[in-house]
Amino acid sequence: MAAFSKRAEGLPLPVKIALSVCGLLLLILMLNQATSNDATVSKLLGASHANEVPDDSALEVDVNPTDPIDFQENGLPIYPDTPASEKGKFVKGKSVYTREQVDEMNRKIEELAQNVIKRIEAGPPKCMPKICAEKYKFRDTTKTTGLKVGLTSIPGSGNTWMRSVVRAGTRLYTGSVYRDGNLIKNGFVGEKLDVKDPATAVIKSHHGFHYKHPIWKFCDANIHVIRSPFDAFLAECNRHGGGHTGSLDRNVLIKKCTNFASHKIGRIKNMYDVWEKESKGELKTRQGPTVRVHLQEDHAMPIATLFYEDMERDFTRATAYLLSFLQVFMEDEPEWPDAYEGLICALSEGQQQEKIHRHAKEPPPGEIFRTPSGEPNEISQALCKAVEDLWNEDKWGPCNGHYQKDRTDIVKHPRMHDIPENVCEAGESPDPTV
Predict the structure, then answer these.
(1) Is 162 in contact with 207 (CB distance < 8 Å)?
(2) What is the annotated signal peptide range for this record (predicted)?
(3) What is the tens place of the pLDDT at every residue in 366-404?
(4) Residue partners of 55: CB distance under 8 A and separation at least 6
(5) What is the CATH number of domain 84-406?
(6) DSSP code of residue 370
(7) Domains of the chain by residue range
(8) How big is the chain by its Cα radius of gyration, in Å?
């Protein structure tokens, strides 16, 4: 630069001005290029989970405005008055489902889940299904139907854990409307793909909590994961606090968590309004007190509500429903895994899933939330007050400062741990009854 300045000293003033302007423009171009590169890297790796903001441009879907499809205010399709085959195409070329079609899928899901549960309860498998030894993969985009299932929940409801269970049971990577760099580092490489990419079949979303990514634009069915608002808010409060809630001052904890809940409560209500009509509505069950599955009948797309708490209390039966829902909906998908074999895979990977499960970061129960006598203290009372409009005792019992996993009035069923390591030979069935 010094040498350049000396050479410029003898130049006419207009030339000096022109050179200065050119230098300034060059500097601006270099800064813009650097910003563009940073944005590209950020888009690939994803922002932190705490700043989950999907790229709206990546969610645009070409929908013919003349298609005779009606939608509710929450963005979900309404049952057509005529059979789907006569009603026109929906989104990616699939028809809106009729009530009869949804009812038939629900019947198949219930029948398959009960069959899977019966087989697994007959005894430990004789061998490990071959699929369990396969590495995770993406769908073959040259063969797939392109069908996608949403996996929706409020933040703090174990969506990441559920995705790991789906991945274990299907051997397929899951996707997301978010690009979370931390999850990519932990093996959730489907985060890198566009939400419409046919290579992924199950997509994480907070539709209802966030409305910038209406699920009907890219999914054809949905699994709604519901969790106690008390537990979910504590998990999120802890996560946003860097995992150190247990060491926070009592007054700081009260203010931090209750403020967090009060600011998010409206979004949670919206979530229930979309997927369950209302939080305190009738609780429909399918499998007794430990596994509650609501196969909905009110939308023109298959929807199942599963409880996070049930996955902890009775992992085997709850996962049987989860994988049965996917198998029935994906029945036309080439090489879709069998729900029974997928359940064995998920059980065998249980210990690995625990490492990813977010509840490991939650503050421990005890004096933080309850008095020495076991009664809810001021922290629990404040948080319960914040979520009282959403609380349903039929689902979660009284709000008393206890995590749902610590309730003593609910029967818990341990996971099956004696899964054999030997892989089944060609033609050999893992089913002990065969």
Answers:
(1) no
(2) 1-36
(3) 456 677 777 777 777 878 888 888 888 888 888 887 888
(4) 43, 179
(5) 3.40.50
(6) B
(7) 84-406
(8) 26
